[in-house]
Give the backbone structure.
Amino acid sequence: QVQLVESGGGLVQAGGSLSLSCAVSGRAFSSYCVGWYRQAPGKEREFVAAISRNGGSTYYADSVKGRFTISRDNARNTVYLRMNSLKPEDTAVYYCAAHTGFEDIMVVITTESWDYWGQGTQVTVSS
């Protein structure tokens, strides 16, 4: 069983920054793809960013490209999401997800075939 725990959410003014962390249990963390998603009130969950197993490839939604950065530290079993230039429309519950299989990360993103999800952390951006 793999567990994911998000942290770092909070309230920030528009234009500010926040860093989220996703701590992942499991001995094989370096073999997991990890992604971030978000869900705003009344809206469907949407993809935010994802990172490949070795951290060499990253993927972003157009809405966050250039403002958010995903990274990972395999020694700490942690994935990070640095969010800069935050906008009120970034307000949502942010979730991290892990894929423990062997599919290509683009397939995982496209099919949303993530195996495990965290409980989420709230990010609120005030105008």
